[in-house]
Structures are given as C-alpha cells and as structure tokens.
Amino acid sequence: MPLPYYVSPEQMMQDKAEYAQKGISKGRSIIVLEYQDGILFFADNPSASLNKISEVYDRIAFAGAGKYSEFESLRKAGIRHADLKGYAYSREDVTAKSLANAYSQSLGTIFSQEIKPLEVEILVAEIHDSPDKNEIYRILYDGNISDEKGYTVIGGRSDAIKIYLKERYSPNMPLKDALKLSIEALESAVNMKMAQENMEVAVLDRNKNRRKFRRIKIDELTAIIGS
Amino acid sequence: MWNSSFYDFLTSQYPNMLSQSGLNHTGDNLANNLGHKESIKNVPFGTTVLAMKYRDGVIIAGDRMATEGYQVAARRVEKVYRCDDYSAIAISGAAGACIEMARLFQIELEHYEKLEGMHLTLDGKANKLSLMLRGNLPLAMQGLIVIPIFAGYDLSKNEGRIYKYDITGGRYEETEYYSTGSGGKDARSTLKKLYSADMPEDKAISLALEALYDAAEEDIGTGGPDMIRGIYPTLKMIRKTGIVDLDEETIETVYKRMIANRQKYHKKEKQ
C-alpha cells in the first residue's frame, strides 16, 4: 500500500484557492451598484430561468457567481436562514450582516475541511431608508468577507469591471444612468455588445412597501434605457 | 430534503418551534399542559368570518372580537390576513393557534415563492393549508380548533375562489359564499337571502358588512361595529389586480347608513 505523501498546509490551501479561482474566473460577472432609490443588481446571464439574483427577505437580496448548483444551494440555505429567523423573532430582526456572517462561516469551513472548495463568490445586500446605511457584503470562496460601499463586482472579470466603474461611478445616480453604466462596464470587459436577453436585472427599491425586491423585466428595461 | 416548504423544514429540523405554537404532527405537549376541557375555556376564541364572490373577484371579512367563555378577551383582534398578493385567510377558532397558523401560512407561501421563483397555484396553496390543518389535528381534538376560510383570485381561471375547511384538514370549495365561526350560521342566513352572483363591488361590500352585523346581533360571541372606540370589522377585496384592504372610513360610512336605515324601520314599527 502506498503511503500518503505529505503536503504542507500552505501548499494545500494555495492549490484549493487556485482551483476555486479558476472555476470562478470562467463565469460571467455581476455588478451591484447603489443608485438614487436603492441598490441595483445587474448580471450577465444568458438563461432566462436559472437566476443569479434572488430575493432573500424584505430588504435583503442575494447574488451568486461561479458554479450554479453551488450558489443555488447557498441561496436556498440563505432564504431558510432568513425565514426561520423572521419566524422565531420578528421581521426586523433579519439582517444582511448575520446572513453574510453565516455564509462566511460555512464557506470558510468547507474551504478548510472539504477536498473540493466551492467555486462561488456571493453578494448579500440590504437596503435601508437612509442611503448611507445600506449594506453590501461580498463573500469569497474561502469565507473571506468584505464590506463594500457604492458598487462592487463578482465573477469572471471583476477586477477589470471594477476599474471601469471606479472612474465613472457617482453616488445618487438615477436608475437609468445606473443601468447604462452597468451595461457599458460589462461590455467594456468583453469587448462585445450585450444582448438584452442576456441581462438579468433586479433592484432593492426603497420606495416599495415591505418587500423591496423587484425584478426589472426585459420590456421595462428597454423602456428605461430607451427613454 | 424539505422541498420548498417552510412548514416541512420546521417540522423536520425544528419541531420544538412548532409544538410551542401547537402546530405539530405529533406534538401534543401544549394540549397535555392545558389538561382537560376546563382550561380550554380560558383560551381566547375568535368568532365570525366570511367570504363571498362578486363581480370582480372575492371579498373576505371578519369581526374583531375574541371571547373567553362568556367574557370578552379582546376587542381588536384581526382575523383576516393577507397571505400574498392574490390570496387571504380568515380564521375562526382558538385565537392563539389561529393567528400562529395564519402567520406560518403566510411565511410558507412567501418561502415557496422565493425558492422556486414563482407563485404556487391557488389550488396548491389551498392544498398546503389542508396539510397544515391536518398537522393541528391532535390539538383540535383537545379543543384548540382552527377553522379557516381561504379565498383568492385564480389567475388561470380568472375568477375569485373560496375554500372552506374542517378540523381534519378536509377541504371543500364553495361556489358563492361561506361563513364560519360561532356567528357563521347567522351571517350565512343574511347572505342566503340577499346574495346574487355578479354583484358590483359596493353592493357586495354592504352585504358582507350587513351579514357580519346580523351575526353580531344574534351571536353573543361576535362583535358588531364599536362606534365608541371606533373598532369595525375588517374586509379585503381580492381582484385580478391584487388584494386591497377596504379603508376604515368606508366601513364606518356603510355601517352608519345601515344603522340609520334600521333605526327608521324600527321607529315606523312603534307608531
């Protein structure tokens, strides 16, 4: 029987990280951006039914990039976490912070203990009545969590898109400008025109009652951009 | 796995959370603690609720009183709950268990919608409520009954629909109207005489509120309009465009007009 040979922890972590990054970099990107009335989610997604963006709770939404089956099960777990907490306590007690922490914990545990890390990057955002209190959390495949302001990008070409946005983003943009900027940013990264069928768009809209999440369907999208 | 059901998720993963509310397949803890029928009397009960179809959809309404035996337990209880954009539930029975079931059912529908990315069909919702009622059967046998009416707008059939239930989870669809609770029979009598299919909205609202008033007159457990405190029955309309609450001012106006008419009638009687 051959002896299992020794691999240093550093080497093992590095290999896992490389593996996960490789998987994620193959995927398409998602932009999250604060605008005048809330938070915009913009995904490059050729499928009309397999969503990358989702409602989680009254004020909280989720976006996942990377391997669909993996972030889909994280999305479902997140909705269960939120609904359970809201049922046991009150609707106001469900927060993006606790959800993001739960994600960070489980992604961290999977990264260090399982052979195969998850090839995902996820975003959790919560909208508040005053814009400066909005929360956007970005959680990486290894459980690394960061708190973002203004805009952020996950998925394949996130660095290039972030640089593009950095030069052009301004706070308090109307929805129309925010959408146009998102399209330009994604197009700049792939050097290609984006078809509207490939755009998955949703917002957390401060002006809505109770459930702030709303999908922007293709005809509304055309109307907003065209006007 | 728990499919896309929050209720199934709770029963399999967190059964304790359910036995406290009394909604459990096996959990008769609460019933055991309550002991015999004597103590059941000390639990608040909610009374009359009704639903009726009309031209644009369906109306669902209920009075506001909860009673403990012959005492008033609460005057401002809400018995009609919005479940989602196209359906509502009205409940009579042990108030605590009822309110809890309405809340859980509302979470159940929202949970499904979020996980699956689409609404359940109206039949699907009605059926899920059956299953939840069946889970409450052990408690119902001890006296903590929950009897809901479920009403909603069926977008595929383009009409309002009404479902009534028994304590075992039996589900029966009504084609015109239904009312349940201690004053349910009295409200049904009024509806029976005055109901017609395809009523316009204002007529339907007046009739629903009148039926609740008659129930309050005949049944000691049902609360009528409380002019002193300004507490009125609540009513929701469910139409193709979604669910709306009828505002309190309109309800108050309808009752004032109705009471004035009845006063006139009784004055004539005396002469």
What does it look like?
Chain A is of the alpha+beta class and 227 residues long. Chain A has one domain: Glutamine Phosphoribosylpyrophosphate, subunit 1, domain 1, CATH 3.60.20. Chain A is 41% helix and 26% strand. Chain A has helices at 9-25, 68-88, 96-113, 158-168, 175-190, 218-226; strands spanning 29-35, 38-44, 53-57, 60-66, 120-126, 135-139, 145-148, 151-155, 199-205, 213-216. In chain A, the strands form two sheets. Chain A has a five-stranded antiparallel beta sheet with strand order 8-1-2-9-10. In chain A, strands 3-4-5-6-7 form a five-stranded antiparallel beta sheet. In chain A, strand 6 and strand 7 form a beta hairpin. The longest helix of chain A has 21 residues, at 68-88. With 271 residues, chain B is an alpha+beta fold. Chain B has one domain (6-246): Glutamine Phosphoribosylpyrophosphate, subunit 1, domain 1. In chain B, the strands form two sheets. In chain B, strands 1, 4, 5, 6, 7, 8, 9 and 10 form an eight-stranded antiparallel beta sheet that branches. In chain B, strands 11-2-3-12-13 form a five-stranded antiparallel beta sheet. In chain B, strand 9 (159-165) and strand 10 (171-174) form a beta hairpin. The longest helix of chain B is centred in the last third of the chain and has 23 residues, at 248-270. The chains are: A alpha+beta (227), B alpha+beta (271).
